[in-house]
């Protein structure tokens, strides 16, 4: 099952969801519920406090939804974190998160860090905006098919250091290299083969596919 999560980020930073045809289960998060509604997509689940949606519009959205988890605006978790917990329960194949970047930097940065929730469960999850797809990985070996939509790929430490990073099938290869947080060594790589492989021994790695 592929799960799509639509958060409350700026609409201009969200790809055209009408063209997204690989999602089996949609979750709308707060204002993201309105984005799904405007895209003509029926949400399988809405979650959040919905304090940013006008009441009459919210009622129309709810009538076009299969299930709703509505919370108080006073809570410890963000609406997106609660949506991530719901997605994890579904044991998905892949999760795609839209509307989680752009706008406020504090929200965008914590949302990237929240990707560790999926990495800890060894679930594949990608945060998507109009120019990038990003994921977080814990130590292991991974393969990525060449993506013509995103010609550049970067491997950045989310932890203080990523130990033993090896890159194969990319234009700039590495062999058992330690990468410290703040280093630009692994920015803007490219695929040299149809499939690239990367693996590392310890740390937390942020992988970003990008286009200009």
TrEMBL record:
Record domain Thiamin pyrophosphokinase thiamin-binding: where: 140-206
Any single biological process term in GO: thiamine metabolic process
**What's in the keyword line of the UniProt record?**
ATP-binding, Kinase, Nucleotide-binding, Transferase
Listed InterPro entries: Thi_PPkinase, Thiamin_PyroPKinase_B1-bd, TPK, TPK_B1-bd_sf, TPK_catalytic, TPK_catalytic_sf
An example of a GO molecular function for this protein is: thiamine diphosphokinase activity
Q: Which SMART domains match?
A: TPK_B1_binding (SM00983)
What is the protein name stated in its UniProt record?
Thiamine diphosphokinase
């Amino acid at each position: 099952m592929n799960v799509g999560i639509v958060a409350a980020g700026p609409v201009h930073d969200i790809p055209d969801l009408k063209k997204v045809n690989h999602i089996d289960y949609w979750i709308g998060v707060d204002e993201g519920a309105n984005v799904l509604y405007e895209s003509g997509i029926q949400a399988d689940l809405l979650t959040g406090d919905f304090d940013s949606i006008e009441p009459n519009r919210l009622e129309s959205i709810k009538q076009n939804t299969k299930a709703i988890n509505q919370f108080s605006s006073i809570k410890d978790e963000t609406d997106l974190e609660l949506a991530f917990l719901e997605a994890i329960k579904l044991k998905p194949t892949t999760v795609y998160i839209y509307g989680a970047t752009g706008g406020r930097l504090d929200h965008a940065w914590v949302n990237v860090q929240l990707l560790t929730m999926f990495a800890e469960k060894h679930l594949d999850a990608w945060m998507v905006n109009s120019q990038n797809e990003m994921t977080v990985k814990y130590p292991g070996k991974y393969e990525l098919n060449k993506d013509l939509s995103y010609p550049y790929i970067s491997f950045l430490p989310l932890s203080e250091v990523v130990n033993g990073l090896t890159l194969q099938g990319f234009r700039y290869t590495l062999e058992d290299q330690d990468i410290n947080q703040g280093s630009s060594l692994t920015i803007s790589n490219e695929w040299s083969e149809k499939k690239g492989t990367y693996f590392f021994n310890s740390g937390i790695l942020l992988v970003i596919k990008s286009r200009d």
